[in-house]
Design brief:
The structure is a homodimer.
Chain A: H1 3-23, H2 53-64, H3 86-98, H4 109-126, E1 139-143, H5 146-168, H6 174-178, E2 181-186, H7 191-200, E3 203-207, H8 217-229, E4 233-240, H9 252-262, E5 265-269, E6 294-297, H10 299-302, E7 310-314, H11 318-324, H12 355-388, E8 394-396, E9 406-411, H13 416-429, E10 435-439, E11 442-448, H14 456-475
Parallel strand pairs in A: 2-3, 2-4, 4-5, 5-6
Antiparallel strand pairs in A: 1-7, 6-7, 8-9, 9-11, 10-11
One pyridoxal-5'-phosphate (PLP) sits between chains B (80, 145-147, 190, 192, 240, 243-244, 269, 271-272, 298, 310) and A (348-350).
């Protein structure tokens, strides 16, 4: 706990990061190295003796940075964005400095209490239903990732259905039930749903989305009917708001009605798009959320909060506590009934003081600042559309209800193989970085606005490159 | 990405943390507030407009700090330690500043490569078997917590046994298998094992540990025989090195031999004690590790690396990739065969650049510095023993092979209820903080050396308080 070293070495590190941020636009966006590059640069064993902090910082540029893909480069358009900002980094310094492990209220009360408060702030800022507020039976929790939130929701739903079915048939075993359980999601849902189903070990049935990549109640209803007829037990569905391939929004209202009727637990995964709901003009996309048992999105994607910070809301926390409650004496405390013990709502035991990040970002940016940030990205995506639309070589594909910061396009009326070659050529060019997707047998290119630093001129630059590389490809 | 604000606000935050570290010994170790205290101090909604960073920092002392339990206070002796240090915090600044999401090699190659390298450094520094190095079929990964490592190991083992049994009986379903699977652990194992078994949904059988709280092969063998006779399928065991209640070390050699013979997957949870293996004098406690399929411990407990950083080693990574592999196009890349994609070895998809923390701490402290840190804590525990041992009112209970930094004691020949009152009186006194445990029907007090700042004088102070509070209690 060397306070002086913290100040001096911390300042050196901040300086390094600040310089990095200032120069990031000039760096090649994708690392230009081969697998194994770093092993050739670093020693084979840890040093016996301490080294100077200056020498560590000096090595960063020569060893680490050449292998970094710059997610915050204004030329990074791959995946979905991941957030960061100076207040979030400051909050992380504080969380690291205090370094409490807030698994229960007593382990560090501020850690639990601030989390409940800022999660309520966030719910109100987004206009989420009241039942997600901590004042009722529900509440918010910061999970590490959307993948964990999906898994946690699935486990709570499994626990609920097991309890219910056990009443009817006291000889029922979990294994026997598991062989009958069915989870549903759209064929556009994120791979983390497959992973959660794999982990829990239950059947996953993908519902064919419509031509706009939207999952609708009718198809869900039909699938449920089929499965019930086969003796299976439908119990859980993941609806996605803002799918990874095309930012499609499942039809919550029709899906939700089916869930209500059929007694399915609806979990909403709004990993990326959920962030937009702090802007009132996108709230209509939340219609139907009243049917959800749980909801999750990632402030670490688009709300200026560093990874990890996934905001999950539960309608009825007892299902979660039931699913996870293990209570040895060394973790018991006198306040268990008056405050949430977040360890019962998550997979890990230990937890960082992550709510500080949300608190700092809310205060340093204000809701106004956060909305402006979201809107700017959406404007830039529109700007890209305005550039590509008039060009006859391209088509914009699967335009979502709101494309938000993502644009999906491909070479018009052309085979997948040609589009694949275009993507390859673009990424080999290395001036911008995109990832593809395969949707309804179509190979498509995804351009997601990702960086705080992206401005119109960068989008124009990206467009010029796409246009130039396409010209070269088509002239071959 | 405001570089100037990062430097100035970062410096302010570092200053706050440095002051906190300097004053931590003078703060009451446990928060002295009631549930709900913070809601009365903070607004009900997030601010619309940005606030100044100075005002945020100013509010810390009046709102957050009163609710913090000071895990790094020299008077904190509860749970097990959690680590922090200035190089780890600096590395977090960097990780937050670069903010890449290293789920696959291509997503940011340095992130994956540094992790493989420093995990190899760590394995070598601890003298772990070669099969845990990344050069073979195994390798190391940083998980968030020991709880996740246990779950991941359990899932990989489930995937292995399912594959094997399916060959014998192609009609086997996972649910049917699950109803037969048995997981074993000592009755002293951590509650995260209960949680992992709950999540996976399989039977957990606790093996009675011996009088020294050690799980031995003989008891494991007997339990397996019983379970096989009932048609069950033993497949997984967690051996603990350094149990939470008393820091007991399961007998890896005899348990490991049984696992080999009975084809059980042995996972070792050395969450706290594992850190000591960087000191050669404790390495004999690792005898038998050659029987393990997986091993995990928490540098975030005792190796100066902030939470979260749990170091997990796998003997054969294919079992993990098999258990978790979901591979959509937007995550595929050209280098999948030449570099590990850590997303297949863990529950979440996204991952922070956590290896920077290990790298910075190794270099800034040197292995020598880390060993000195571990040894000092162990010396302080011995010093506490030297103070309490001559006092006839107390007995030291369940002394482990190596107690490391933990001492377990109670009032000699006295009922649990009196010991419970002693703990309550100590924690109400609030000058030091301990948590109890219940071991073999005995209520015991645990004193764990936790803080970097703890010196002989603090241990002496703790002893004086224990002595004084006991005198008062016994005179009633
Ligand atoms: C719709 C959706 N769900 C889930 C995820 C996974 O997020 P995480 O890494 O937080 O698990 C993503 C990531 O892009 C996503 O787009
Ligand atoms: C033996 C043991 N295993 C597991 C854990 C849980 O650690 P984590 O919070 O990293 O899951 C602990 C925590 O004290 C422990 O002592």
């Amino acid at each position: 706990m060397d306070a002086d070293a913290l100040i001096s070495c911390g300042a050196m590190t901040l300086q390094f990061v600040a310089e990095y941020w200032r120069s990031i636009g000039k760096r090649p966006v994708v690392a230009n190295i081969q697998p194994g590059y770093l092993r050739q640069l670093l020693p084979l064993e840890a040093p016996e003796q301490a080294e100077s902090f200056t020498s560590i910082i000096k090595d960063l540029e020569s060893t680490i940075m050449p292998g970094v893909t710059h997610w915050h480069s204004p030329n990074f358009y791959a995946y979905f964005p991941t957030a960061n900002s100076y207040p979030a980094i400051c909050a992380d310094i504080l969380s690291g400095g205090i370094a409490c492990i807030g698994f229960s209220w007593i382990a560090s009360p501020a850690c639990t209490e601030l989390e409940a408060i800022v999660m309520d702030w966030l719910a109100k800022a987004m206009g989420l239903p009241e039942f997600f507020l901590s004042s009722g039976n529900g509440g918010g929790i910061i999970q590490g990732t959307a993948s964990e939130a999906t898994l946690v929701a699935l486990l709570a739903a499994r626990s609920r259905i097991f309890k219910e079915r056990k009443v009817e048939d006291p000889t029922l075993t979990l294994g026997r039930l598991l062989d009958q359980l069915v989870v549903y999601c759209s064929d556009q849902a994120h791979s983390s749903v497959d992973k959660a189903a794999l982990i829990v070990g239950c059947r996953l049935r993908k519902i064919a989305s419509d031509a706009d990549c939207i999952m609708r109640g009718e198809q869900v209803q039909a699938a449920i009917a089929e499965d019930r007829a086969e003796g299976l037990i439908p119990f859980f569905i993941i609806a996605t708001l803002g799918t990874t391939p095309t930012c499609a929004f499942d039809d919550l209202v029709s899906v939700g009605r089916v869930c209500e009727k059929e007694h399915l637990w609806m979990h909403i995964d709004a990993a990326y798009a959920g962030n937009a709901f702090i802007c009132p003009e996108y709230r209509h996309l939340l219609n139907g959320i009243e049917y959800a048992e749980s909801f999750d999105f990632n402030p670490h994607k688009w709300m200026l909060v560093n990874f990890d910070c996934s905001a999950m809301y539960l309608k009825d926390r007892t299902h979660f506590v039931d699913a996870f409650n293990v209570d040895p004496l060394y973790l018991k405390h006198a306040f268990q009934s008056s405050a949430p013990d977040y360890r019962h709502w998550q997979i890990p035991l230990g937890r960082r003081f992550r709510s500080l990040k949300l608190w700092f970002v809310f205060r340093a940016m204000g809701l106004d600042g956060l909305r402006a940030y979201i809107r700017k990205h959406i404007e830039l995506a529109k700007y890209f559309i305005s550039l590509i639309k008039p060009d006859d070589r391209f088509e914009i594909v699967f335009p979502a209800a709101e494309q938000l910061g993502l644009v999906c396009f491909r070479l018009k009326d052309s085979p997948n193989e040609l589009n694949e070659r275009l993507l390859k050529a673009l990424n080999e060019d290395k001036r911008i970085y995109l990832v593809p997707s395969m949707v309804k047998q179509k190979y498509i290119l995804r351009l997601a606005i990702c960086s705080w630093l992206t401005e119109e001129k960068h989008v124009r630059f990206a467009w010029d490159i796409i246009s130039e590389v396409t010209a070269k490809l088509l002239s071959k």
